[in-house]
Design a protein that fits this description.
Elements (H helix, E strand, L loop, with lengths): L5 H4 L3 E7 L4 H16 L5 E7 L9 H10 L6 E3 L4 H5 L7 E5 L5 E6 L4 H16 L41
Parallel strand pairs: 1-2, 2-3
Antiparallel strand pairs: 1-4, 4-5
C-alpha cells in the first residue's frame, strides 16, 4: 500500500484509530472499523490506523504487518514506535477513535469499545456535510448495533473527558 499524502486527505473525512494488535478491546472494534473503511471509502472516508505499541515485540514492523494481514486490516497503518503521534493527540487509550471533518477539525472521538451506532452516525453526518447532502442513517449489513460483538463484554465503558487541545489535521 502506498503512503498517504496530504492531497489524499484534503477535503476528506478522516477516521484515525489508535490500536495495538495484541489488545482484545481493539480486536472487538475491528469488525466495525473495517466495515466503515470498506463501506464509506467511495463517499470519501479515509481510515488510518495508528499502531502504538505496548510490548517490545510490537516494535517489530514485520510483526505488525503480519498481524494486519492475518486480521485483514486493509487501511493504512502508521507505526508509532516513539509515541510521537500518540503525544500529538494527547491520547491515553487503546483503542481510541478520532473523526476529523474535511477542514481538519476533530468533530468526534470515542475511547474504548462501544458507541458503534453513534460513531457510524457521525461518519455519515460528516460525509453528508462534505458532499452537501442531507444526512440519512444507514446500517452496515451483517453488523449488529447496540450490542457488543460476539464474545465481547456487555459492560458499557465510561467516556473519559475530552482533552482540551485536540490536534488539527493539517492538509494544506
Amino acid at each position: 500500500m502506498e503512503p498517504l499524502s496530504r492531497a489524499d486527505l484534503r477535503r476528506r473525512v478522516v477516521l484515525v484509530q489508535f490500536w495495538i494488535y495484541t489488545c482484545v478491546n481493539w480486536l472487538r472494534t475491528l469488525p466495525y472499523v473495517r466495515a466503515w473503511a470498506e463501506k464509506y471509502q467511495d463517499p470519501g472516508l479515509v481510515v488510518i490506523g495508528v499502531h502504538a505499541l505496548e510490548f517490545p515485540f510490537e516494535h517489530d514492523l514485520e510483526n505488525v504487518r503480519q498481524a494486519a494481514r492475518d486480521l485483514r486490516v486493509a487501511y493504512p497503518i502508521a507505526q508509532d514506535n516513539d509515541f510521537a503521534i500518540w503525544r500529538g493527540f494527547n491520547n491515553h487509550y487503546w483503542p481510541a477513535l478520532y473523526l476529523f471533518d474535511p477542514k481538519g477539525n476533530v468533530r468526534y472521538h470515542h475511547f474504548g469499545e462501544g458507541e458503534y451506532v453513534r460513531s457510524e452516525i457521525m461518519i455519515q453526518r460528516l460525509l453528508a456535510e462534505a458532499s452537501g447532502r442531507r444526512h440519512q442513517r444507514r446500517r452496515i449489513p451483517g453488523v449488529r448495533f447496540g450490542r457488543a460483538p460476539r464474545g465481547g463484554s456487555r459492560r458499557r465503558l465510561g467516556q473519559p473527558e475530552v482533552p482540551r487541545n485536540l490536534p488539527r489535521l493539517r492538509t494544506s
